[in-house]
Structures are given as C-alpha cells and as structure tokens.
Design brief:
about 800 residues, 8-stranded mixed beta sheet, globular, about 30% strand, 45 strands, 14 helices, single chain
C-alpha cells in the first residue's frame, strides 16, 4: 500500500501538512465552513455540524438504537408510562446502570416490533430468547435527560398493542434526542459489519489500497461537501501488465444512468464492459462520472500554478503497483455535485449535497487495486470551498449488507437508511426489481407476469400491492375535528364514523401540499393516510397556532398496508375478513367506507379495512401491525389463489393511475399549481366556513387560467413529464403524466392546458426534441380516460 502523507507543490517541492496552510502553500488568515452556516444572505439549513444534537420521533411499537459514548446525553420524552428503555455494554450485557436507570420489568416484546433488537442481541453473542431488563421511567413534564457514564448501546421503545394500532387510540409518539459530549470528535457512521482495515485520507492527499473479491469498501465524507476521486483496477490484469480500470463511459452506457446506484443498475464497469464493483449503499446519491480528477493544468489555467491536485496524487499513490503516471486521471468523483443542463448540455456544478457522515459502500466483484483522494480544490464550490478528510473502511466478504439509500423527511431532518417493508420476505422471492418509496423499498414489477400482465390482472381479476410507503397519522382529542376542518378542503363535519373521504391540504395560495384519505374511526378520532410528512408538519403547526386540544400520532412505519384491487377483490376478502357486529361488515362497505376486522375469526390478527385505492377499480386497502404483516400476506395469497391473484408493482399502478385520471405529487399537483389547476376541484368544498387556502381558491375558481385535461395520442410514443403542448407555434400547456394505455392501445397523456385551448376535440401537438424538432399529434379529451363515471370502483 502507498499513502501520500502530504501534498507536493510541484514548482517548489514544498510539502504541506499543516491544516492552516492553503493548498497553494500560502498561509490562511481566515477560513469558513458551509456546515451549520446560517445567515439571512446565505443559509445551509440541510448541512448541520457533525456534532450537532439529533432528534428523532419514534412511531408506536418502534424500537430505536442509539450508540452513546461517555458523557453523551440522551433526552427522552413521551406519553406517561409509554416509553421503555433497554441498554447494553460493549460485550452485549444489560447495562441500564450506565444510564443511571434501575432495572425493572422485562421489555414487553409483544407490544414492540422487536426483530431488529433481537437480531442485534444474537449478532453480539447474546441470548435473544432471554428476558431483556428494561426501565419504564415516569415521564416528567419536560424531557427525561440521561447521561452515559461509559460506552453503551441504548434501545428506546414506544410500546403499543397490535389491536390498539389497527383500531386507533395508541398512547402516542416518543421523541429521542442525542447530544454528543462537549468536545467530542465527529462521530463516524455506525460500522456496517466486521472491518478488515480502516484509515483516513487526509485532505489534499491520496491513498492506494487493495480490496479482495467480495469485500466491501466504504468511502465516508467525514465533514460534508468533500469530493473524493475514486478509481479501481482489476488486480489480476495489473499483474499481467494491463490497466483495466473503471470506465465512466462504459458504466453510463451499461446502466443507462449518469452513475449506478443500489438496485438493479448498480455496477461500475471497465472498458471491456466487465463489472468491477456494485454499489450496495449510497447515502448521498449525487456524484460525478463525467469529468477528470482535478489536474495541475486545470489550476494553472485559473492562475494557480503549483496547486496540489488529485491527478498527481493518484499517480504517486499508484506508482508502487506499476501503474503509469497520467497528467489527468478519469475518476468517479464521489460527492461532487454535477449535472447536465437539459437545454445547453453544459456540465454545471455547485456545492455538494453530501452531509457529514455520508458514504458510498461498494462490493468488489474482482480482486482490485483502488485509490481514493481527499480533493484539495479550495478555489470553487466543489468541496464547499473547504477541503477536508475522507475516511475509508474495508469490510470482510461475509459482511451482510442490504441495498439502501438515504431518506430524509426534510432537508434538515436526520438521515435514515431505506428499510425493507414488513412484507419483504414474501416479495423478495418474486422480484429483484425494487425502487425507493420514501424510506422503504417497493417492488416495481414482477417478472413472472410483467407490468402488462399485472395491469390486466388488476383490470380483470385481483392484485395485491405493498403500499407501506404511505404516511399515516392518527389525530385524536376534543378538537380533532376543528383541526382537520381547518387543514383540509372537504367538510369534515359531514364525515360519519366508519367513513372516509379523499381530500387535500392546501397552503394559503390554494396550492396542494398533500392529498390523501381521511377516515373517521370515532367521534374524536381520525386517521389521515397521505403521501408526505409535510402533512404532519402542517397539522402540528396549525394545532399550535390555534391552541387546540388534540394529539397527533405519527405512525411512520408502524402500519404497513396492502392494496387489494380488482373486480375479484371483494370475493377474496369475503374468505378472510371477520368483523364484529358493532362495526360495518365487508359487504356493507360502500366506496370510501372503513371498518376494523380480524383474520378469519375473533382471535385472528387485527387490521383496519377500507374500500379505497388508487386504481379506479373496485378495491380495498388493509392496514395492520408489522408483527402480523406476513401472516396477513399469506392469508391474502392463499385466499386469492382461486381468483388468479397477482402481485402488482408500481409500474403497472402508474399506468392504471393515469388511465383513471388520478393526480400524483410532483406531476398533476406541484408548486405554483392550485387545486383546480391540478384537476382536484372535486375535492374542494367552497361552502365550508373556512379552511386554509379557501380565499385563494374562491378567487381562482371565478377566473381559471389553466385546467387539467386528457390528450389522446395517435401513436405509441410516450412523451416525458414536462413536455410542452403546442397550438401551432405557441406553447399552450404542459404534459404532467403520460403512458401507453393497454386498453386503448395507444399513448395517452394528462396535461395542464390554458382554458382557451381545452375544448374537447381540439387538436394540439406535444413537442419533442427541444419541443420543436418533433411533434406528436393529440386530441383533447376529459379524464378519466377509462370508466369516467367510476362505475368499477362503485360496483
């Protein structure tokens, strides 16, 4: 191995290692850092300091793990008697005393989704079948603050019964805040497994290292916004005198993307199109594969002769392996934020998206010689103007590592790694084609039937789809109706118990923030099933502003759910859904009705059942506890066998959604688009006394400028989202969604059109190739394209 311990000024031969010396060898009189920078003129809210406190909200039944070092503080707040805490030392032994807590009763595993904890105990050599000592402290009015007297792993849980979860009325959320000890060094992300080696690449240096086939290399941005050039050579080819390295052009051609990511298209290839590495986890998701590592010439031409550069550092690091020196090295520039302007095709760049602790983890598919740099560029935004260190870990081949990307509810929210849904153990044998759905992996398609087969199964028989990525909030209390009446666009006062309605949340301009289905489970208890965490923030802000007596429970991942859709869905559910006499029976559920049921009989797994969906077909949605998810999946599949049940992925759902004219976020509703322009006027009740956005929507309703319409294309070409719609030479609209309709046997599109051009039967053109070089003829029509009276869903 070779480690370049400093950087060399190639004019003077000066070697710089002092952190107060600039990359050119001159003294730094004043420095700055984007991390945590907040001023009225320039703010970086998404880039907190690595040592800042982190707060997380725990869903009902959730168990959360927090590693603590000596002196770290842990603040816990939750409902009275509704928080359980377990703790373990480095050897996996119970260690509640390290947090100043007495041992109490055993951890109530039945009321917690405890699989992660039990797996952690087993992995650390403990007995996962033994009782786990836990503390259930009485929660003070403010947070309970605990201080770690030594290294300890804390597990904090928010218990709730499975029936409580499905039927409503959970005790509430817990909030956990971790505050590192004063003066603590930045904390590296948790280990992914058993490391063989790890080291830090100091800023403005490079290091070459070997990675064996099957091992995992993790490149970590320690302090955020730091570019790290990376390349890898086939070690066997190097021994033969042949330099076969990662080739950016071959990689982009093979994966048909700017760079690979966790999933199907996850590999880096050499020039012979042989894979060298596959990306397993990536928490940043924005890197560069277009440019070179920085070069001496690049700095010279900007007026900085002698500036240290990554290309020379790479050559020095690789020299012991017999790799020929190059003046310019092609490399994968991890964490360098570049993109191609869609109009000029120029490559553009600005500050990186990587936060402190972001990383990329890749598994070697051959024996490799790798090289990593910590880029020295301090004269433009590539490294946030502030070069810092990069850390590298190499894990042994047997390290189990699931595919994952990072998910943040908001730009300044804590990072979470994408998880497998509660149904994953049944889905994974059926498909490998998953894509992120918020913080979960969701199936895109199933190869045994294909997207078209799944589509026709939903139209003619019955399908089951994992929709666990939906967000769910329970709103309870004497002012629950008051809050929801203000927050949503339909009249909540008219909503009966065991009924639901599709409704919207808008801002003061009438722009749609989120859409979803609101169910009333009791006079003062509602369940809001929606698409975004923004709903929770809006509800919380309104409750505080209005001074309401209401509790908002963020269910997060506690309630996985299935969509059972298609004309045979009711027949399937008749075989498995048991309801008590005091709630609606399955056959009594009308469109948007809801009930609570159990699997097969009164002792079966509990779940909430609603007659709703996103397909326009007869269909139902089922919400349950994670602990019951696989049992319920198995029952659904067994009962659906005689009806030809087919698992369905997001690709088929997208076709059906567009045919049904159903709106989607960042498509039909987007910033600057009000509810009427999004085609959602049917969900707005302007006769309500008041709701957020009503004044703007009343004004806009009198003089609409744009409306949502359908376009029937005379071909199979499917235009992209955002394609311009023309009447002659003038753009009169924009495509919001498009697909090829298997039922209509040609392409269709939903478009936002100026009212002057929205008459049914009008002939327009969709622009392709910059909007003007190619045109697709289209005829204006209403949406939905199929079953405009929704007779299927009402059947």
């Amino acid at each position: 191995m070779t480690y370049v311990t400093g950087f060399i000024n190639h004019v003077t031969g000066y070697i710089a290692q002092d952190s107060d010396i600039a990359m050119t060898g001159y003294a730094v009189l004043h420095a700055f850092d984007n991390m945590g920078h907040m001023t009225p003129a320039r703010a970086f809210p998404g880039f907190a300091k690595a040592r800042k406190r982190i707060t997380r909200v725990l869903a009902p039944r959730m168990l959360f793990k927090q590693e603590l070092r000596e002196g770290d503080l842990l603040s816990v707040q939750g409902p009275p008697g509704g928080v359980q805490i377990a703790a373990f030392d480095a050897a996996g032994r119970p260690a509640l005393a390290a947090l100043g807590l007495p041992g109490g009763n055993p951890l109530p595993l039945e009321d917690l989704d405890a699989v992660p904890l039990l797996g952690w105990i087993a992995a650390n050599g403990g007995n996962a079948g033994a009782e786990i000592p836990a503390a259930a402290p009485n929660m003070p009015a403010g947070p309970l603050v605990l201080k770690a007297s030594g290294p300890v792993t804390a597990w904090i849980g928010c218990p709730a019964g499975r029936q409580q979860l499905a039927f409503g009325g959970v005790p509430g959320n817990a909030t956990v805040t971790w505050q590192p000890a004063a003066g603590a060094a930045p904390q590296l992300p948790p280990l992914l497994g058993d490391t063989r080696e790890e080291f830090t690449v100091s800023r403005a240096t490079a290091r070459a290292y070997e990675v064996k086939r099957g091992e995992i290399v993790q490149i970590i941005d320690l302090e955020g916004q730091q570019c790290s050039d990376f390349t890898a050579f086939n070690a066997g080819a190097l021994q033969r005198g042949e330099e076969l390295m990662i080739d950016g052009t071959a990689t982009r051609s093979m994966v048909r993307r700017a760079y690979p990511g966790p999933g199907l298209l996850d590999k880096f290839f050499d020039r012979d199109m042989r894979p060298l590495l596959n990306v397993v986890q990536d928490t940043c998701g924005r890197h560069d594969t277009f440019g070179l590592a920085c070069t001496a010439r690049g700095y010279e031409e900007r007026g900085f002769p002698g500036h240290v550069n990554c290309s020379d550092n790479i050559s020095l690091a690789l020299a012991p392996y017999g790799v020929a020196r190059r003046a310019a090295w092609p490399a994968i520039n991890f964490f360098w934020n570049t993109w191609v302007d869609p109009h000029s095709h120029h490559i553009l760049t600005e500050e990186s998206y990587s936060r402190p602790g972001d990383y990329v983890a890749m598994r070697a598919l051959e024996d490799l010689v790798c090289v990593s740099t910590a880029c020295p560029d301090d004269i433009d935004p590539i490294n946030g103007w502030n070069p810092t260190d990069v850390h590298v870990r190499i894990y042994r081949p047997e390290t189990p590592l699931r595919r994952a990307v990072a998910y943040r509810e908001k730009e300044d929210a804590p990072m979470s790694i994408s998880q497998n849904s509660a149904f994953h153990d049944r889905l994974e044998p059926l498909t490998q084609h998953f894509a992120p759905a918020r913080d979960l992996w969701a199936p895109v398609s199933f190869p045994s039937h294909g997207t078209t087969g799944e589509y026709w199964a939903c139209r003619n028989a019955v399908t089951v789809q994992d929709m666990s990525g939906l967000r769910k909030y329970d709103i309870a209390g004497p002012d629950a109706e008051v809050l929801l009446q203000q927050a949503t666009t339909r009249n909540v006062a008219k909503l009966a118990v065991w009924r639901g309605s599709y409704t919207l949340m808008c801002d003061e301009a009438g722009t749609v923030i989120d859409d979803g289905t609101l169910f009333r489970l009791a006079p003062d208890l509602f369940r809001w099933c929606c698409g975004s965490e923004e709903s929770g923030r809006v509800l919380n802000a309104l409750a505080q502003e209005m001074g309401l007596q209401v509790r908002i429970h963020d269910m997060r991942g506690a309630m996985p759910n299935l969509a059972i859709q298609g004309p045979k869905s009711r027949d399937l559910l008749r075989k498995i859904a048991f309801t008590q006499p005091h709630v609606p029976a399955l056959d009594q559920l009308k469109w948007f009705g809801a009930t609570v049921a159990r699997l097969h009989d009164r002792e079966g797994a509990p779940f909430m059942l609603s007659r709703s969906g996103y397909t326009g077909e007869l269909g139902y949605e089922l919400f349950c506890s994670q602990a019951d998810a696989l049992t319920i999946w198995d029952a659904v599949m067994a009962a659906g066998g005689e009806f030809g049940i087919t698992p369905m992925g997001s690709a088929a759902l997208e076709i059906i959604r567009i045919e049904a004219g159903l709106a989607a976020a960042n498509a039909e509703f987007a910033p600057g688009v009000d509810a009427f322009e999004a085609g959602l006027g049917f969900a707005v009740d302007l006769t309500k006394p008041a709701f957020t956005g009503k004044a703007a929507l009343e004004r806009n309703a009198h003089a609409p400028r744009r409306v949502l319409k359908g376009l029937l294309l005379g071909c199979n070409d499917v235009p992209l989202h955002g394609s311009p719609v023309y009447d002659g030479e003038r753009q009169v609209g924009t495509v919001t969604s498009a697909t090829r309709s298997p039922s209509l046997e040609h392409a269709i599109a939903i478009a936002r059109l100026g009212v002057e051009h929205a008459e049914n039967g009008a002939r327009l053109e969709i622009g392709q190739l910059d909007g003007r070089m190619k045109r697709l003829g289209a005829t204006v029509t209403d949406v939905p394209f199929i079953d405009p009276q929704r007779k299927r869903a009402r059947a």
